[in-house]
Amino acid sequence: MSTATTSSTETNAAERSHSLLGDYSVLFKPRVSAMVLLTAAGGFYLGCLRTGISPFSMLLLHTMLGVAIVTCGSGALNQALERATDRMMPRTAARPMAQHRIGLAHGLILGFLLTFGGAAYLALYTNLLSGTLTLLTAVAYVTIYTPLKRITSLNTFIGAFPGALPPLIGWTAARGVIEWPGIALFAILFVWQFPHFMAIGWLYRADYKLAGIRVAATQDPIEDAARGTVAQALFYAVLMIPVALWPTFLHITGWPYAIAAFALSIYYLVATIRFASITKNPNDPENRKVARQLLRVSVIYLPLLLMAMALNAQGHLLLR
Ligand code: HEM
Ligand SMILES: CC(C)=CCC/C(C)=C/CC/C(C)=C/COP(=O)(O)OP(=O)(O)O
C-alpha cells in the first residue's frame, strides 16, 4: 500500500471534527498519552504497595492529572515544532497546526501553559522530585528528541529516555525518592520502545522519507534499512526478556509475574522474529502486515505486563 492511501485513526478523527475540541484531542495525542498515563499509574501503584498505603487516594488523582496535563502540553509543543513536516506526511497532514486551524501562538501558549502548569501542579500536590522529573521529560521530548528527528536516526534512542520516564514518575509520586524498582520500570519501558518504533518506522518509511525525518527505516538502500531496523528490533526484543523479569529479582513481584512476563516477552519476540522477514524482500508491500502485527503486539504487551505486575505485586508485597 502506498503512503498516499494510508489512513490512520488520527487523520480520520481530525477529518471528522474540526471543532476546537476535536482539534485539541488530536493535538494532545490521546492514544500515546493514555499509554503514558497507564505506565505512570503502574509505577504509582507499585510504589504505594511498597510503602504499604492504598493506591486509591487523592494522591493518585493528583499524579494522574499532573502527568496528563504535561503529556498533553508536550504533545502540543511537539506539533507546534513539527507543523511543517507534519504537513508533508499523509499520517499527520490533517493535524490542526499543520493545517493552520490552530495558529502557532495558540499552540505554543497552550503547550507552555500546560507543560509548566502541570509540572508545578505535580510539584505542589505530589512532590518536587516528581514535578521536576516530569518537566525534564517534557523538555527532553520537545527540545532534544523533536529537533533531532531531522538530524540523526539516533533520535529514537534519545526519545526513548523521556518515553521511559513516566513509570518512574509514578513511582516517585508515591515514594518521594528514586529507587531500584522505579529504575526497573524505566528500563522495561526503555527497551519496549524499540520493537514498537521499528515497526512504526517501517510502516511509515515513505512518510518519513518525504518529510526528511531520519529513522533506521529511511536509510538507503532499502536492504540496509530493513537490516538495520530488524537488527535493532531483535536486539531489544531479546533484551526485553531479562529486563521484564527484573521486578521479580528485586522482590516486588513473585513467580506468577515472572512466568507471565516471560510468556509475554516471548510473544513480543515471536512478533519481532516474524517482522524480521521484511529483510527477505524489503520492497514487498506485504511487509506492512508483519509490521502492523508487531505494532499491535507492542501495544497489547505493555498493559498486560503492567497488569500482571500489579496483580502479583499486591499479593507478594502484602505477604512479605
Ligand atoms: C522513541 C519512542 C517512541 C516513538 C518514536 C513513538 C512513535 C509513535 C508513532 C509515530 C506512533 C503513531 C503510529 C500510527 O499513527 O499508526 C505511535 C503510536 C503509539 N505509541 Fe509510540 N512511540 C514511542 C514511544 C512510546 C511510548 C513511551 C508510549 C507509551 C508508553 C507509546 C505509546 C504508543 C501508543 C499507545 C500508540 C498508538 C498505537 C496504535 O494506534 O495502535 N509510544 N508511537
Ligand atoms: C510525562 C510526559 C511529558 C510524557 C511525554 C510523552 C513522551 C515523552 C513520549 C515519548 C514517546 C514518543 C517519542 C512518542 C511519539 O513520537 P513522535 O512525537 O515522534 O510522534 P509523531 O510522529 O506522531 O509526532
TrEMBL record:
UniProt membrane topology term: Multi-pass membrane protein
Lineage of the organism: Bacteria, Pseudomonadati, Acidobacteriota, Terriglobia, Terriglobales
Signal peptide residues on this chain, from the entry's feature table: none
Protein name: Protoheme IX farnesyltransferase
NCBIfam families tied to this protein: cyoE_ctaB
Keyword field contains Transmembrane: yes
Function: Converts heme B (protoheme IX) to heme O by substitution of the vinyl group on carbon 2 of heme B porphyrin ring with a hydroxyethyl farnesyl side group.
Family that this chain belongs to: Belongs to the UbiA prenyltransferase family. Protoheme IX farnesyltransferase subfamily.
Other notes: Carbon 2 of the heme B porphyrin ring is defined according to the Fischer nomenclature.
Pfam families registered for this protein in UniProt: UbiA
Main location, first listed in the record: membrane
EC assignment: 2.5.1.141
PANTHER family listed in its UniProt record: 4-HYDROXYBENZOATE SOLANESYLTRANSFERASE, PROTOHEME IX FARNESYLTRANSFERASE, MITOCHONDRIAL
Organism: Granulicella cerasi
Gene that this sequence comes from: cyoE
Keywords tagged on the record: Cell membrane, Heme biosynthesis, Membrane, Transferase, Transmembrane, Transmembrane helix
InterPro entries in UniProt: Protohaem_IX_farnesylTrfase (IPR006369), UbiA_prenyltransferase (IPR000537), UbiA_sf (IPR044878)
Transmembrane segments: 34-53, 59-81, 102-122, 128-147, 154-174, 180-204, 225-249, 255-273, 294-313
EC supergroup of this enzyme: transferase
Top-level taxon: Bacteria
